[in-house]
Amino acid sequence: MATIQHQVTLDDKQYLAALQRIDKNIDKIASDGAKAFDSVQKSANLSGVQIGAIAGIVSSLTTAFIQMGQQAVDALIDIGEKSIETALEIDTLKARLRGIFDGSQEAAEWVGYCNHPYNIRRAQNGAAEPFKVRLWPGTI
User: Fold this and answer.
1) How many CB atoms sit inside 10 A of residue 22's CB?
2) In principle, which of 33, 76, 110, 138 could form an S-S bond with 62, CB 3.0–4.6 Å?
3) Residue 79 and residue 85: Cα distance in Å, rounded?
4) For residue 69, which of 116, 13, 30 has the smallest C-alpha distance?
């Protein structure tokens, strides 16, 4: 069994700027593809060669490539949104735990050590899987 550690640090402005650059690049690819096909079509008409079938195939491939790029952007947006949601859930959990343990930071850290699936310190101590502790002294 493999242990995967994942840490995400998000800066919303940088994240949105990267997505905008990707979107602009996709638009540029589409524009450049259309210009290239126009040039090929003009050359074919001038030389009398009919390459409609080839142009159609290349056009279809370009369209598919653009769609894949758009799907990748959508996936990145989804990952970013889920990461933000997860961070908010973790912050909420920390606040709740602090309330349960009378604001004890040490108690909240113990809960994270025992139960968080990606706790690095626990994994370094030889326990990759969470302990899944559900009952704590003084919380019953």
Assistant:
1) 16
2) 33
3) 10
4) 30
Asked if residue 116 belongs to a domain, the reply is no
Query: Looking at residue 126, what is its pLDDT?
Result: 93
The first and second tokens of residue 120, run together, are 């690095």
Domain enclosing residue 58, as ranges: 12-80
d(CA 30, CA 40): 15
The verdict on residue 63 lying in a domain is: yes
Number of domains in the chain: 1
100 in a structural domain: no
105 pLDDT above the threshold of 50: yes
**What's the average model confidence in pLDDT over 12-32?**
77
Other beta carbons within 10 angstroms of residue 114's beta carbon come to 16
Mean pLDDT of the chain: 76
In a domain, 36, yes or no: yes
> In the 8-state DSSP scheme, what is residue 129?
S
How close are the terminal C-alpha atoms of the chain, in Å?
35
Q: Are 80 and 23 in contact (CB under 8 A)?
A: no
